[in-house]
Amino acid sequence: MSTSRKNRPPRIVFAFAALALAALFYAGAYLYTSVTPPAMHASGSTSSQGGQASESASSQAQVSSSSQDTAQTKESSAKSEAKKQSSSQREQANSQSAKKETEKDSQTQSAKKESEKQVAEKQKSKTPRSMRYKLQGSCAARVEKSPTFAELTQQIGTFEDKGYTVAFVVHDLQTGKELTYNADEELYPASSIKAPFTTAVYQELVDKGEVQLEDVGPVAQETIVESSDEAYRALHESYGEQAFITWLEDAGVGPGSYESYEEMVSWNYPHICAKQLSLMWQRIYAYLDGKTAAAKQLSGFLEKRTVSSLQQALDKNTRSVSKMGWFDTESEYNSKPATVEGGVVYAKEGPYVIALMTNAPALLDELVPLERAVCAAHAPMLQ
After folding, report:
1. What is the DSSP string of 48-113?
2. 141: phi then psi, degrees, rounded to nearest 5
3. Terminus of the chain with fewer CB atoms < 10 Å: N or C?
4. CA–CA gap between residue 255 and residue 258 (Å, rounded)
5. How far apart are CA 300 and CA 319, in angstroms?
6. Does CATH place domain 135-381 in 2.40.160.20?
7. Domain extents for the chain?
8. pLDDT one-digit tens code per residue, 45-101
9. d(CA 1, CA 24)
């Protein structure tokens, strides 16, 4: 069936519609391009979106880098901690090793010191001790070079190592040569002073006819042979001190540290030195050599003394006369500890005086080896 032209829309309408549509399309396109930013990509993504994508990628990169850094930090921290632990372990090991080495060194040093101590002690027993004082006298150097010197220093050391004082004089009566040691030190003479005092009574009173020998003899015998203190006091009371003062002056014995002879002899046992005791015995020797009846009697008493370290120290065939003194404590009567002996030895080389003094408390047996060593020095004195 055909349609009537009358009912169909005219062609111009279609054309106009097409133009309208085209106008609308271009208007819309124009409006779209005006609103949208000019930097439009062909793909339809804007630069903003690209920036966002870039920022996102950068952020992811930063996160990745941060994670990497964190991992590296952790790894570095772990390595550092491991290094610290390793260092600490090494230090601890080194410390323990050093401690062991120190302990080992300490043990080695202790063992070395102990060994050195034993060697020193062994050596000390073989070698002489050093003396507190030097030998004096014209022949001291000669004695120091002799074989007897070692024993002399050893025996002096046995006293001095204990804090005691030793003093002596050895005087050769033919040549006048002397060997002295600490000879000016004043010490307590104890009963050794009884011999000089009794000799003064015999020489100044008996031999001069002022006193009878039979009156003095019995008291003198107790004083010298038995070393009786009561008999010695009886001599003082009976004959006074003036004879002793005169005798001391003639012997060349001064009062020492006392202001006068009177003060010195007012004490029955005045403190004296070995040099003074030696001078007293030089005068005793001279008196006994005079061979008067009184001198012979006194010589017999001095030879028969009951106690004498000198007699024990000498050969049995060697004659001697002496008087020993000893005391073991200190008292208000001027007494001090002492072990002393003075005398004359009639040796084969010739007679000599020995005056040996110590402040050791009554060590009579201990004095014997010391006195023997001192007497042994006499022969080298004459060489």
Report:
1. HHHHHHHHHHHHHHHHHHHHHHHHHHHHHHHHHHHHHHHHHHHHHHHHHHHHHHHHHHHHHHHHHH
2. -60, -35
3. N
4. 5
5. 12
6. no
7. 135-381
8. 333 344 443 444 444 444 344 445 555 555 666 566 656 666 666 667 666 766 666
9. 37
